[in-house]
User: Fold this.
Amino acid sequence: MKKIFSILLICLLHLATAAQSKAIQITDDRGVVVKFTQSPQRIVSILPSLAESVCELGRCQRLVGVDRYSNWPLALTRLPQVGGGLDPNIEAIVALRPDVVLMAVSSRAFDRLESLGIKVVALEPKTHADVQRILKTLGRLLDVPEEQGAARLWHNIEAGMTTAAQMLPEHALDRGSNRGSNPALNIHQQTKPPTVYFEVNPAPYAAGESSFMGETLTRLGAKNIIPASLGPFPKINPEFVVRANPDIIMVGLRGSAGLEQRPGWQGLRALREKRLCVFSNDESDILVRPGPRMAEAALLMATCLKSKAR
Assistant:
């Protein structure tokens, strides 16, 4: 009898140890420590890049609700929608009984959700380093071995961005001045990188040098006209762009109408010489989401830079 009791005790201890080993502790981007007894099985995401990351880490089936903008992979469009980051539908989220809600720090909805007893992990990637860190955090939260998840995914992103950069001769854009008898030769002799203005919203908000999009442009050999000192995604005065007179303008289809009607913009080099890249709505989604599709974003930017070289 004592032997049986000892065996049962050992089994219980093993079970307790196993259960304890599944406990997860995450420090989110608010600095808040969020504890889980096990990896969450029911997840609501109200930030598209986080939903995409969950899926690329192999845990798409755990998502039970997403924001209205999450549309990739296609399976996400079939999930219940719970509003947006700035206007989440709290009642709809609660009805889905999530183990955790993933959201941006800027959402400001976490107070209401946490007051209702729902766990929140707030993550907001703004730079390449943030994306790498957040993939690791999500990998831990989702119980994905790093070598199979975050490390593999980041390696693929890095490799894709390197491939995109290799499409471009260094500083290949001819700025349109002092051309000799051999324009092709002059292209490769340029000593200054192309200057680029990337508009993410017609307010206008721009992708700054310190943002993940700005970092990608730098990696491709371009010079962002929006300095890091203005922040990742500053709202700017259109006159700033006129003074900078960029070689290339990148903009999404949603915000491309009426650029030449802005005061002074009809004289911009980029518009005058048709060095304007207008990205489709699907392409814009890829470009503005800091997550697993950043290599595709780099390829879109590289293709634009290459096509606008003279």
User: Anything to note?
Assistant: The chain has twelve helices and eleven strands. The chain has two domains: 23-144, 169-307. The first strand starts at residue 24 and ends at 27. Residues 85 and 107 are 5 Å apart (CA to CA).
